[in-house]
Amino acid sequence: MDLAYLWFFIVGVLFVGYFVLDGFDFGVGMSLPFLGKDDISRRQIINTIGPVWDLNETWVIVAGACLFAAFPEWYATLFSGFYLALLLILLALIMRGVSFEYRHQRDSVRWRRNFDRMIVIGSAVPALLWGVAVGNIVQGVPLDADHEFTGSLLTLLNPYGLWVGVTTLLLFWLHGVYFIALKTDGQVMEDARKLALRLFIPAVIFAAGCVVWTIAIAAGREAPLLWAVIACGAVAAVFLIVSFLFNLRRSEGWAFTAGAITIVFAVLTLWLALFPYVMPSTVDPATNSLTIENASSTDYTLTIMSWAALVFLPLVLLYQGWTYWVFRKRVSRTRIEKAAAVAH
């Protein structure tokens, strides 16, 4: 296989990893107003991702760095054309990270509530805008002959882009609620299971519409991997239903696993629908579009990157796996109450 095509799939895998891992972080953050009935329960919810949220975010840094090195033309067009949307995502992520670190620094209800609101906003905005960005990449955007984006932020807020954005928001939220049910006990766990049941219907509606719409877009430009797009969409739908059934059976671990598999195949549905393009143009698609071949780096660069990935990627996976193993236990309400009593 040509290295450019290999790196298209490697970058896709990195984004899949990011959306699965930071996706449940977003979902946890969005759940605060619905599950955090008091400060103890809110701390319980936040502590589920406390040890791992920053590690999960590194996946997008690695994915962006690989995109820059493997597909510089794609990187330049994407980050210059989508800069307002990506800036909003960056500001939201900064807001969320600051809130995690500062909410406990002052014993004030108002102080903590303000940072809790920032966590919710800093989780919902990226969950929505990442979907909008990916949806527009798949659908295609106006590019001129120099591969420069000629639209604006409003161009990105089209029906398909917004539909994909709402879909990612709902799937990430559901994924995060499953994670809360897996990692907590008591009333928070029970409320999380009930919230997951309420989120399931809208998630199914938007996910089904997203899959059908994406298949139609791929079929419209005769995508060579259309069969894989259809297969991945079907697998995502099946595992979304399976996650619901496991939640009904109170099997939190399996519900979370099925939710993660849903996101994996949902992202793959979008990514494979893009192939062999990396950024289709809606203006003269035959000549203005960015493809894997005309957007990639030289074979020498891609060869060096391939050897580096072969060495370092397994180490990163081992370290992340070890981190999750160390912090595998549930976050109990009793333990937080004891810590709060000691602090006072």
TrEMBL record:
Topology within the bilayer: Multi-pass membrane protein
Assigned keywords, A-Z: Cell membrane, Electron transport, Heme, Iron, Membrane, Metal-binding, Transmembrane, Transmembrane helix, Transport
Chief location bin: membrane
Annotated signal sequence range: none
Pfam families per record: Cyt_bd_oxida_II
Subcellular location: Cell membrane
Segments crossing the lipid bilayer: 6-32, 77-98, 119-140, 160-183, 195-219, 225-246, 253-274, 304-327
PANTHER family: CYTOCHROME BD-I UBIQUINOL OXIDASE SUBUNIT 2 (PTHR43141:SF5), CYTOCHROME BD2 SUBUNIT II (PTHR43141)
Family per record: Belongs to the cytochrome ubiquinol oxidase subunit 2 family.
Protein name: Cytochrome d ubiquinol oxidase subunit II
Gene from which this protein is expressed: cydB
